[in-house]
Every structure is written in structure tokens, then in C-alpha cells.
Amino acid sequence: MSAQxxxxxxxxxxxxxxxxxxVQQARQYRVQKLKDARSEASKEIDEYKKAKEDEFKxxxxxxxxxxxxxxxxxxxxxxxxxxxxxxxxxxxxxxxVKKLLDRVVLVxxxxxxxxxxxx
Length: 119
Hints:
- By secondary structure, this protein is mostly helical.
- It has one domain.
- It contains one helix and no strands.
- 0% of the residues are buried.
């Protein structure tokens, strides 16, 4: 019987070793799957980030033209207003200077309204 018992014990030890190998392989498989899942998630995050950056750049480019067009319109309007003011200045400066000189030089003396004629 002792041979049968030792053979039974030997079989149990071999089964235990085989079970330990299977458990170790399962742990390694689980660790590898976690690494693969992290790697895949990282790739998805990078792809999503790149897609959003491209979308933002497209949005920015489409609206940058609008800002440029608005700036050009404002510049043209300012330039035309400035030209109109300059033309008006050039046209009327002689008349204004003449009126100012007439007011300063041609003074007609008169009595103040509060001064009463004394009788």
C-alpha cells in the first residue's frame, strides 16, 4: 500500500504543480491583457485628441478668414472717412482762416449794453 500511497501522493503533487502552472499562465495572460487594454486605450485617446485638434484647426481657419475680411472692410471704411475729412479740410481751410482773421482784425467798437447814457 505504501507504493500506492506514494504513487497517489506523487500524482497529487504533479497535479498541484500543473495547477500552479495553469494559475501562473492565467496571471500572465491577465497582466498581458491589461497591458494590451491600456495600450489600446492610449491609442484611442491619441486618435480622439488628434481628431479634435484637426477639427479645431479647421474651425479656426474658417473663422480666421472672416476676421480678416471684417478687418479689411473696417480699414476701407476708415480710409474713405479719412479721405473725406482731408478733402473737406483742404476745401474749407482758406474760408475758415479768412473768417477767423475777419473776427480778430475787423472789430467794430460799441458801448457795452450795461452802460447807460448819462443825461
